[in-house]
What we know:
Layout: H1 6-44, H2 46-51, H3 56-60, H4 69-75, H5 78-85, E1 106-109, E2 115-118, E3 122-123, E4 131-132, E5 140-145, E6 152-157, E7 163-169, E8 179-183, E9 188-191, H6 195-204
Antiparallel strand pairs: 1-2, 1-9, 3-4, 4-8, 5-6, 6-7, 7-8
This protein binds zinc ion (ZN).
Zinc ion is lined by residues 109, 111-112, 114, 157, 159-160, 162.
Amino acid sequence: MRFPTFPTIVRTFYTFSNYTARLPLQFKALQPVTRGTVLKSMPTIPFLSNLFSISAATRDMSYPVQKSDDEWRAVLSKEQFRILRQQGTEAPHIGKYDKHAPSTGVYTCAGCDAPLYTANQKFKSGCGWPAYFDNIPGAVTRHTDSTLGMERTEIVCSNCGGHLGHVFKGEGYQTPTDERHCVNSISMKFSPEDEGAAKSKDSKA
Ligand SMILES: [Zn+2]
């Protein structure tokens, strides 16, 4: 029945804001674990990661854009091929779009130019890779990825099946979805035009 005393309110508020302020640090503290595992495992055993990959069913799924490995190699750089077509991961903090924060524009697939994310879906996560809380409807397909001894959700381009990264949920980011699409910069291109303009340009091409 008693109304909380003023010091109680102050203390509660202080605890709450302290907790909130600490959140990003906690996430940072978690990052090296994930990053270390990915970096250590991926480059040394690229064929192994393919072997245990995402499941054959995923790779056999038919996407509108179908190319053989040789055809992909002809249009992608070596690093783009490794990441988009062999489920690789680029090193953190070095990607072109990690700290990219335009107010408008569209991120498209580096393999097939399909629009994937809008600039206003991007947020600053501090994780070392571009982060988005949502994607353009239908542009991204999710698969369960059981490689590296853990279960993650892989995200690929719905148009060509190119590997984009992974999506993580419930980390406490103050975004509308509390999801983080952790995407390799090299899997994307950026167009400063808005989504509609990017689409009409695509249809002309
Ligand atoms: Zn694509």
